[in-house]
Amino acid sequence: MTVSFTKGLTLMAKNNDPKKIVLAYSGGLDTSVILPWLKSRYPGVKLVAFACELGQGDELKGIKKKALASGADEVIVKDLRKEFAEQYCFAMLRAHAIYENDYLLGTSIARPLIAAHQVKAAKATGADAVGHGATGKGNDQVRFELTYQALNPKLKIISPWKDPQFIADGLTDRETAIDYATKHKIPVTSTKKKIYSQDRNLWHISHEGAEIEHPDAEPNWNHCLTMTVPVEKAPAKGQVVTIDFKAGVPVAVDGKKLSGEALIAKLNQVGGKHAVGITVLVENRLVGMKSRGVYETPGGTILYEAHKAMQHLCIERDTYHMASQLAVRYAELVYNGQWFHPLRYALQSFYDNINANLTGSVKVKLYKGRALAIEASSPKSLYDDKLASFAMSGYDITAARGFIDLYGLPNRVYSMKHKPKV
């Protein structure tokens, strides 16, 4: 009975095998191994290796040749840096979204963009499936698959790390993936001595694995840091940069107008020089466990500090407080892969509305790992020098007495009834 049922499942699986898969391909260890494995898993399948230029440096050098040599039938490489910066990173910046107080969501914000363009590539190439190399223990699997489902629920989703056959073939971790790559002569840069899992884009670079997985150990800064220098190696003299905003969007650095991707790259360079934007975080993954990572976000850290100063200057009190509360939920939506969720769209409308008045300039001082807003100005500023000064002028100061009496009335009534001990 059991054998017959298993055979039926096997036959069904074969009948539903994908004919053509668009795989999110980075050229890293996981996807380099997955390409040839998919050929063996689904005999006759056509593979489209889909790679995105998101500002990951020279990682895409020779990627077409490598993908074709690893089993891809087609290779698509798209430069999405401008879209990534201006439609994703800056949209998130306007919400001032930060996950668990420290994480500026660099990997989280990139995944829905990649997945959305995979769906477009599937349509363009006639593919019936999309796939990714995210593991079954991480957040990225959710981010990819929720995007696929949101944009085209008819596409088959191929996720090798959740396929029992992948495990049966001995692929259980990064070490066995390296063994598989060596056996099948697949070129990879990862080694068992340098086993970090890294994700880099224009906004940040993340590091996981090796000693970073142990919260009681300090990360090996000389091995893992890429965009920034350790604090000890930062210059002894600080530097001030000026960020110009228009409706909450950064448009210039030190008076020079730049496209979104160029602006972030510029701030990465100057911020990295001063050790700005290094975060060590034990975070709560969506799938349930805690994980530890090292994040480098130099340009993003500078922009968040500057944007915060513009918020303080230009947003009315109650609105600002509500924006701060909702930013936590917005960050969760991004972290959890719900970029294309109706709630994210609704919150974006709110944030775009309140950012309409965030036009002006902020000076940020960079020094030994710190980014500190030291000056801010805006034609939309709500700051009133006369009201803020210690001079007893500008409004009726006697009104404060009645205000305090009314504001404190509930507490006074409670104290009279319950007579709290002092």
Please, could you describe this protein's structure?
It is built from 15 helices and 14 strands. It is α/β, with parallel strands linked by helices and 422 residues long. It has two domains: 2-84 and 105-197, HUPs (Rossmann fold); 204-315 and 358-377, Argininosuccinate synthetase, chain A, domain 2 (Alpha-Beta Complex). A hairpin with a 4-residue loop joins strand 6 (197-200) and strand 7. Helix 12 runs antiparallel to helix 13. The radius of gyration is 26 Å and the shape is elongated. Residues 1-13 have low confidence and may be disordered.
Outline the secondary-structure elements.
Elements: H1 2-15, E1 20-24, H2 29-41, E2 46-53, H3 63-69, E3 74-79, H4 81-95, H5 106-125, E4 129-131, H6 140-151, E5 156-158, H7 164-168, H8 174-183, E6 197-200, E7 205-208, H9 221-224, E8 239-246, E9 249-253, E10 256-257, H10 260-273, E11 278-284, E12 290-296, H11 298-314, H12 317-335, H13 342-354, E13 360-367, E14 370-377, H14 385-388, H15 399-418
Parallel strand pairs: 1-2, 1-4, 2-3, 4-5
Antiparallel strand pairs: 6-7, 7-12, 8-9, 8-13, 9-10, 11-12, 13-14
Helix pairs in contact: 2-8, 4-5, 4-13, 5-6, 10-11, 12-13
